[in-house]
Design goal:
Blueprint lengths: L17 H6 L9 H5 L5 H4 L12 H8 L11 H17 L3 H7 L2 E9 L12 E14 L4 E4 L2 E4 L3 E5 L1
Antiparallel strand pairs: 1-2, 1-5, 2-3, 3-4
Length: about 160
């Protein structure tokens, strides 16, 4: 025998709420006090009360960070290092000062290495990933060894490739 509702289910003798179970589902008139305080909600709106919530703040971010693939830093060959140095030198000749950089508005595409900074990762500061940014070169500082492209400052030692 299949039970269609709780009212059809067998209950142990001395069941505490027998009288309530026999009454069945409550029926409310259109404008009684219960209906006024608790109006009927459409099924589409009711779904939001069952929507999931993030009980563990930051847990989702931590799990997605584990999916991040980290790699070893690439050691440039002599020819690649010479090519990178020649491009940096050409860029330095084009924009010797930050003022010249703002006036000439030279665009560049930069690929650089950034180490893993997630302290919970097994690759923390041992591996990293390569990031590519594009934008206007606003500063090339050979004294401190850094370049600013698209508002992001990158150390020259971290650069893998520059495309002008």
């Amino acid at each position: 025998m299949k039970y269609r509702s709780i009212g059809d289910m067998p209950r142990p003798s001395g069941f505490r709420y027998q009288a309530v179970a026999e009454k069945g589902k409550p029926r409310h008139e259109r404008f009684d006090t219960f209906y006024i305080r608790h109006p009927f909600m459409e099924m589409g709106k009711r779904a939001k009360i069952f929507a999931p919530f993030d009980a563990l703040n930051g847990f989702g971010d931590a799990v997605s960070a584990k999916r991040e693939r980290y790699v070893e830093r690439v050691q440039l060959s002599e020819s690649d290092a010479a090519e990178l140095n020649s491009r940096l030198e050409a860029l330095r000749e084009l924009i010797p000062t930050a003022r010249d950089a703002r006036e000439k508005m030279i665009s560049a595409r930069l690929t650089y290495y950034t180490p893993c900074t997630d302290v919970n990762s097994e690759h923390y500061m041992t591996r990293g990933r390569y990031v590519t940014i594009s934008g206007t070169v606003t500063e090339l500082d050979t004294v401190f060894g850094q370049i600013t492209v698209g508002g992001r400052t990158v150390k020259l030692r971290d650069i893998l490739r520059i495309e002008l």
